[in-house]
Amino acid sequence: MKDVTMKNILKNFAAFGIVPLVALGIAFASTVGGASAEEGGNAAEPEHFPIHHPKQEKWSFAGPFGTYDKGQLQRGLKVYKEVCSACHSMNLVAFRTLEGLGYSPEQVKALAAEYEVQDGPNADGEMFTRKALPTDHFPSPYPNA
Is 84 annotated as a binding residue? Predict the structure, then answer.
């Protein structure tokens, strides 16, 4: 069994040659340093392709904090009620949010009353249905959902 001491380790390094290791370390340090200096100096202007920003379009709305065409949104609700609600649910949307589409509180109350929601339990412990209120959510088209 060989004796592992610092003297033997240094002797093995000397036999291998420390000069190639130092040269390898210097070469590695210079390539890493040069690459990071190259990237840091020109990050704002890529040389291989120009970046063109898209021109500003004039849409009928001004983004998430702008205004929307309320007539278009009300027509969308009508299409949902007549076509889409047979298969698709808006059960995460409360009726009261329809005021954001330009409906008055009375109109929202009338729209909600067109739907029946399950409520309860009553005094006998049974579930029952009632006309929806503005605080209720749209019912799901499927009874088990």
Answer: yes
